[in-house]
Automatic annotation (TrEMBL):
Assigned protein family: Belongs to the peptidase S41A family.
UniProt domain PDZ: residue ranges: 105-188
Highest taxon listed in the record's lineage: Bacteria
Keyword Hydrolase appears in the UniProt entry: yes
UniProt source species: Luteimonas notoginsengisoli
CDD domains in alphabetical order: cpPDZ_CPP-like, Peptidase_S41_CPP
Pfam families: CtpB_N-like (PF22694), PDZ_2 (PF13180), Peptidase_S41 (PF03572)
Lineage, top ranks: Bacteria, Pseudomonadati, Pseudomonadota, Gammaproteobacteria, Lysobacterales
Keywords: Hydrolase, Protease, Serine protease, Signal
Name this polypeptide is given: S41 family peptidase
Stretch forming the signal peptide: 1-20
UniProt KW Signal keyword: yes
Length: 447
């Protein structure tokens, strides 16, 4: 099943350099770019026309560049200054587009393969250099030290984070066994927390599972990596074999605080649980950005009910999977509104080993709804209990990130969800599995 998905992923990667070459020559409607150059024209105008960039903008850039070179208080290396300029091109586009030097690009690849040296946390760098935690990865130093989704890291080892802090692999990466002290701002805490984390080699087992009770299984997916779909299938088969009858009566699929990962992996798992129907589509400005994924016959659960557990830390590929199962009425979604990262990033390699991570498309669920800045709204809404309830709602959502890409169905102020921890949400999802089948559009609030 799904023999074409790895081929598609490779095709997208191979097409990236050609795609990158197309980007600079595209002009928006109304751009005053010069399209036709007559012989004898100013050489600067010829170069401007070739790049599709207005000549006046080039002159303004050169003026600022020269001013820095001549008058800045300290000498600035040309390479460093140009690198800063390139990063600046991407900084104000949206929170997910970025320039990655060679080390960062390699680290990005390591993350998808599930092994790297660091603290084990998925983060989003903010424009001021501070770092927002999307989610700590299960059973990593960050999770064990108490780092939580929604935390903002403002300093590392006493040094305040700035946009320059992200250069190289960043301050959170480092040798296994070394200790890093994080200054963390957390909603509900009167002052920043000081949290020490000992770095390790992060080998993330992205799938684990167990039986909740006879006939009902639980599978936790912490991230979508290259081998996650294979691990999901083997874990599900193991649980089915251990049930006695070889079949399950229901499955709780836990995607809480799963920050996402590889789209193709999420598509494969959706396909494992669907017999037919759409999974996700992407739409962008160029043909290579448009794609549509559909399920093939072969539901590994053989129609048994599924409950998908989500919260505010469920982002990107997690939302794709939850949306696919929800829109096909294959599963009930239980928890709180998801993060709302509904944009696609394409890694465009450059000739010097660096890469550009560029937002190129938006995700749409099978019903045609955009995830961006809206997220997935659960069928059954859960709220935190006890002492953690006051701090769990941390205004934590894509829609609240500075400079975020506008969502098609964005509603200001109503997009933040709760971070749900502990076993109580699992028990609530299990209870949903035991209910008679109802419409996937029903919504119930539970304490």
């Amino acid at each position: 099943m799904r023999p074409t998905l790895p081929i598609l992923a490779i095709a997208l990667l191979l097409a990236a350099p050609a795609f990158a070459q197309q980007l600079p020559v595209e002009a928006q409607d109304g751009d005053p770019a010069v399209d036709v150059v007559e012989p004898g024209d100013d050489p600067d105008a010829v170069e401007s026309a070739a790049s599709g960039v207005p000549l006046e903008e080039i002159k303004r850039y050169v003026a600022v560049y020269n001013a820095i070179k001549e008058a800045y208080v300290e000498p600035v290396d040309d390479k460093a200054l140009m690198g800063s300029a390139i990063r600046g091109l991407l900084l104000d586009l949206d929170p997910h587009s970025a320039y990655l030097d060679r080390d960062d690009a390699e680290a990005f690849d390591e993350d998808t393969n599930g092994a790297y040296d660091g603290i084990g946390v998925e983060v989003q760098q903010l424009p001021d250099g501070k770092v927002k935690v999307i989610a700590p990865i299960d059973d990593t130093p960050a999770a064990r030290a108490g780092i939580k989704a929604g935390d903002t890291i403002i300093a590392v080892d006493g040094k305040t984070l700035t946009p320059a802090s992200a250069e190289g692999q960043g301050p959170l990466r480092g040798e296994p066994g070394s200790t890093v002290k994080l200054t963390v701002v957390r909603e509900g805490e009167p002052k920043p927390l000081q949290i020490s984390v000992t770095r390790g080699t992060i080998k993330v087992a992205s799938v684990r599972g167990r039986m909740l009770e006879p006939g009902y299984a639980y599978i936790r997916i912490s991230a979508f990596q290259a081998d996650t779909a294979t691990d999901f299938e083997s874990t599900l088969k193991r649980l089915q074999a251990g049930s006695g009858s070889g079949k399950l009566r229901g499955l709780v699929l836990d995607l809480r605080s799963n920050p996402g990962g590889l789209l193709t992996t999420a598509v494969q798992i959706a396909d494992d649980l669907l017999d037919a129907g759409g999974i996700v589509s992407t739409r962008g400005r160029t043909p290579i950005s448009d794609a549509k994924f559909s399920a093939t016959p072969g539901d590994l659960m053989q129609g048994a009910p599924v409950a998908v557990l989500v919260d505010a830390g469920s982002a990107s590929a997690s939302e794709v999977l939850a949306g696919a199962l929800h829109d096909n009425k294959r599963a009930r979604v239980v928890g709180s509104r998801t993060f709302g990262k509904g944009s696609v990033q394409t890694l465009l390699p450059l000739d010097n080993g660096d890469s550009v991570k560029l937002t190129t498309a938006r995700y749409y669920t099978p019903s045609g709804k955009s995830i961006q800045a809206r997220g997935i709204e659960p069928d059954v809404v859960l709220q935190p209990e006890g002492k953690e309830a006051a701090a769990a709602h941390a205004d934590y959502a894509e829609a609240l990130l500075p400079g975020h890409l506008q969502g098609d169905e964005e509603v200001a102020g109503s997009n933040a969800g709760d971070v749900l921890e502990g076993d109580a949400p699992i028990a609530a999802a299990l209870a949903e599995l035991k209910k008679p089948a109802v419409s996937a559009s029903a919504s119930v609030e539970r304490p």
